[in-house]
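Input chain follows. Return structure tokens only.
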Amino acid sequence: MKKIIIYGGGTFSPIRNHLSLCAPAFGTTARKLAEMFSSDMGAGWVVLLRLTKMANNKSKLVTNEDIVNDIEKQLADPYVNTIIMNAALCDYDVVDELASFHGQRLQTSLGDRTLQIRPSEKLIDKIRTKRPDIFLVGFKTTTNASEDEQFLTALKMMKRSKCNLVLANDTVTRKNMIITPEESKYASEATREVTLEMLVKMTLDRNDLTYDRTRFVLGFNTDLKAYSSASDTFKVVLKYLVDNGGFIENNGNGFTPEHFCYRTNNYEDGTQRFISSQRKVNHNEVFENGMTEVIVDQDTGEFCAVGSHKPSVGARSQWLLLTEYPEYDCIIHTHNPLKEGSLIPVASQAPFQCGSLECGMNTLNNLKDFDGKFKAVYLHKHGANIMFKSSTPSEEVIKFIEDNIKLGVKTT
């Protein structure tokens, strides 16, 4: 049995008796999602709707603290697979030792009062810190933001809380969109109803994907050494991408989301190795920062990464492709759109989160061969994966990219 927990409604932060801050929300979306999930799920799934008192007068969930305690109970249940955090949590706490639902009431006859408030703790951030296996869906609200501002606000929240999906909605423009870890947006032109339907489908498609953990060994001063083992062709292509907008940062945290890798020679100890782009770095600085070496155990398939940063989340997919096509030793994955008329095939990305084994299989199964020199596929609303060989002249690789990829523009 697998459980989906849906939180809805708003919370209160007490000031005094009969006086509170609140985040007004009445559970309409949470109830709708519960209906949608219940009708779309197969056997073996259970939906639990957890509404606050603002949405259900019989509920005992009133404050942020009540939500925290309830989440702790849910996280202790190994059958809980997915949490939909649609509850509107009060963003501020009152800085007053007398603040309480039963505190002595303030007297209006005494005139104006000054209230000090401080930001409350971001409760959603705790969920995947404690249970990284949980599939977490968050919600982010803006007011009269542009589409780009709305996207970036939701993306920032996603990266901070490690959400698997975020539904962003604007209360003034009424625009809704679904944000993914691949930094893509879905349903941005759809109605609220259609957006919720897509959210349910993407959640059910993505929540049971397979991830292989990489054992990470901190090893300073190995990054540039690892990078130096790459071929000249690979380095020239990377330089071209850096100089021409192949790596674009747009989430405000200084990181770029693309990835790339190069297969190095096998070693005498029987291990196979490749170097992968690093996680949570700016790839435009690859020449200064280097790459991370990944060692693959021939017997167990276990990954051990050595460097100052973890390898890309796409490392498992990279190795899957390199293993299937041993004649290729270079892979680049950018987040740029295809040019009109490109012959690179397009595959859907919506059911797959980047970094999952299933995402790698989706890439592998849709690669197209280009005269034995390149293999490529474009993942819709994500980006292109291009395999090439060190023996191919760098100018031919660059021409292939120029003919197919619109550099300098970010996929969304």
